[in-house]
Specification:
Layout: E1 6-11, H1 27-42, H2 47-52, E2 56-66, E3 75-84, E4 89-99, E5 104-115, H3 125-134
Antiparallel strand pairs: 1-3, 2-5, 3-4, 4-5
Length: 136
């Protein structure tokens, strides 16, 4: 078994770079978010449908270790895998690897939960069924 359950390839665009010519640190969070949404779709969970039902998946903690910067035109892969933390919390572990050399650029641990329209944490059975089936 591989050490991730989902991956997506992406490209760095010029406007994502700062004056030093490297990807700005905040842009990596955008890459991770896009990959998480795509992973949920790939696993059969529609983020927009959850929202319409009043279930909001929210990030409340991000731990990121920046290692090797990406530059304009670089191609990279975002790898993601799920981990159940508790009944109400889950972790999406993510890593960005530069292509074609496979250099690890950023590793992140995204801790999230689901909340109701009222802002209270709620247990959503299908989310944790997904965790059980797809956690590494």
């Amino acid at each position: 078994m591989s050490d991730y359950s989902f991956s997506i390839e992406m490209d760095v665009r010029d406007y994502e770079c700062d004056l030093q010519g490297i990807v700005n640190h905040a842009r990596y969070l955008h890459y991770f978010e896009h990959a998480r949404h795509q992973m949920l779709l790939d696993l059969g969970m529609d983020f927009a449908d959850l929202t319409a039902r009043g279930v909001f998946l929210v990030v409340f903690r991000v731990e990121a270790d920046y290692r090797v910067p990406l530059k304009s035109g670089d191609r990279f892969v975002v790898r993601s895998w799920l981990e159940r933390m508790s009944k109400l919390r889950f972790v999406v572990n993510q890593e960005i690897l530069r292509q074609p050399d496979g250099a690890s650029c950023v590793k992140a641990k995204i801790i999230a939960t689901s909340i109701s329209r009222e802002g209270r944490p709620i247990f959503v059975p299908e989310i944790f069924e997904l965790m059980e089936k797809n956690a590494i």
